Amino acid sequence: MSRYPRLMPAHPRLFTAQVVRSERRSPSFQRVTIAGAQIDEFVWAGFDHWFRLFIPPTAGAALVLPDVAGRSWWKPYLAIPEPDRPHCSNYTVADVRQAGGETELDIDVVLHWDAQGRVAGPVAIWSVSAAPGAEVALLDQGLLFDPPGDAGGIRLVADETGLPAVRGILRHLPAAAVGSAILEVPTSGDVEDLAAPAGVHVTWLARDDPRATPGALALAEVGRRAAPGRNDYAFVVGESSLATQGRRLLHRAGLPKARITFSGFWKHSPTASIAR
To answer: What sections of the protein cross the membrane (predicted)?
Structure first.
């Protein structure tokens, strides 16, 4: 992949917003809904539209944001003194709707727990404790999903961190689309009904064992599938090994690298997990 995805805006905008509510969506997902005058101006492109989420470094702290000039934001971000520097993570827009005369935007956060059974990770902790009115910000990053005009079958592969992206892609594919979606999630309770074209087959894989390696079930399923057509397009996202090995499997099966979008959203550690 190039340094900047083709569909990333050249001058991404930084939007500020406030938390409206937070609620458990399934055993492994917390949904945080945000809104605000600037979110009313957010232009949602559908599919896997993603953004960089900024939250205060600690509960109750002020939200100090970097200056954004064109695509430049990282150096100004690092220039913020560490005690004041907000936490930044990448997320996909889970949904957008009009409610009560304002725009609401949903963020689905994957939950992980430490050895003591406590929610772990800055964004996960924030998601379950965020009170209405809490300040957040998002930096628009556009789309990664970018099939060529002659794409045949669409092949989607993701773990739980890529579920919001695949959900959005399935929702916005044309009705005549054909292909498959392989979705691995932590538990059977995370499986959901997805809106998808009739020609796209959705396979759910639930680990149901907290000791299982994330992405292993999805990779095995990719290996079992029939070889892709040379005009297919694949989108493989989630844990780092799932993304890279999934791409390798599809390429070895005959799909050109240029027709595979892949991205590692997090890296699994046997002793600690990171929520995207």
So the answer is: none
